[in-house]
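Kindly inspect this one:
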Amino acid sequence: MQPRSNPISGPTDGRAAVSLLVADRGLSFFLAFLVLITTFVSMIRLSRPGRIGLDLMFAFMLFSGAVATIRQKALMYLVVAVTVLEFAGDLIVEINSSFAHLGWDTALKLSGLAILVVMTLRHTFRPGRVSVRRVMGGVAAYLLIGLTWGFGYKLLMERRPDAIHFQSSIAGSPTGEPSRLIYFSFATLTSVSYGDAYPIHRVARSMAMAEALIGQLYPSILIATLVGMALQARSGGGQQAEPPKKVTPI
């Protein structure tokens, strides 16, 4: 007698596959935006169209990150609302520069990035098998940490413009520009220092020390965790696949 097939399993499996495909593509777009921002941000001119384009790219990055990594609707709506508010704040600052000293647009960026860092790490280290998607999440979290610290430095320099010293060769542009601070952040995160910028204020030094420690420890913890999860999944699969031993009566 043949076992009856479950008619519900087919559509459910199909919806799960479509959801997984959409999530994979969303994470790919999210990682692509992160790479674009971290790699090409220094090439963008400091004119008004360049700044607006960078703000728009940053807003798309936050939105794609919320779609790719957040499963709770309330939290995803919160990140989307923060994204809309920070882009509106950027436009207001571009129109009227007298609001720039308040720093609330930078604070909104920092809040959205902090939420994405936590949710991406949670998504990366969730239980399950190790896949390319999980590795992409780990890389995205590493880049997000660098961006978060970069805007943290920006928020600090809006209060203390002399918190980080830049050499005269690159001081022709405002030192509080995000491109300079993102460059300094990733130079600190990766422990690649060229000596052209260094922290002076005690808060900036504490932030730089914390970022340098995270930059050294995070890759080791990520690799060790993923390898441990892969070995655990392999050993668990092998134990489940082992057939039960047959007891022969005496």
